[in-house]
Amino acid sequence: MDSWQSWYQSSRQQRALLRWAAQGHLDAAGLRTARAWVGDPPGAADWRRFWLALCGWLGVCLIAAAAVTFFAANWSAMGRFARLGLAEAALVLAAAVAFCAGRRWPVLASLALWLACALIGVLLALIGQVYQLGADPWQLFVLWAALMLPWTFASRQAATWLLFAAVAEIGLWLWADTHLHGTVFAVAFAAGNLLGLAAWEVARGRLAWLAGRNAGPRLIVLALLTGVSVLALPNFLVRAHGGWSWLVWLGCCGGLLLYFLRARRDLVILALVLLNVIVMVTVHLGVRVLDTTSDVVASATMLAVLVLAQAALAAKWLRSLGGNGAEP
Predict the structure, then answer these.
(1) C-alpha angle 267/269/270, rounded to 5°?
(2) Cα angle at 53 between 47 and 56, to 5 degrees?
């Protein structure tokens, strides 16, 4: 979505110039020169490309969903060879379109390759259902991620890498849920996500097609915080609950705040961390308050005030960072 990135950055810079002019830091001539240097926001042609790309990505998502629902709706009407044959034909067709489009139609090639990666999962699910292999669910997602990895490298697209990250994320969670428990589960899940986040951060600094793409790290951080929060929640809800998952959660929050505050400021990720902290602190204090008093109205009022105070402090801190070079 290069048009979206260009529009957002240009609009942000134009607002900054107008703010500086209103504060007296730029005169009229300086404002005209700066606005000419920044450039105008994307025009009609840029918006047309943006909407075509957006509709294309929505289209391949709908096609992938249609493939799943088609086999589910017509399961009893087709034999096993018809099911597998149609799925394989769709996969080969998507891969062929991506190969033929190549560099001549790069957007079409990216869309088709993403669809082919998604259809790998559909085919594996069909094989598992037809032959009843008895494999654990995590094995499906791990195999899916492994098979789509070569195409993911070839795509040079953040969207395909996001699909790979989502599949690997689900596989990691299901594997850890099957083989690990308690604190070890939390450590393994956090380590896998932090490894993926570190790899993305290194790649975005070295690969031109990943430069300026922030959706990947933000979604990985969201998945990481959601997972470790769910695993640490029993420590916050039950006073006598054993385990040290809350330390894993605390370490993840502290590490993310430190990195995205010192190394590369990202307001969205910092906001996600603060939101997660607010939720967990409110849950912890809410349980303790309800354990000590039976006045529900007073407890709810106190917690509401606490949430508002935390949100106000977080917003004030993020606003102060917004003027110091933090990424939006």
Answers:
(1) 60
(2) 140
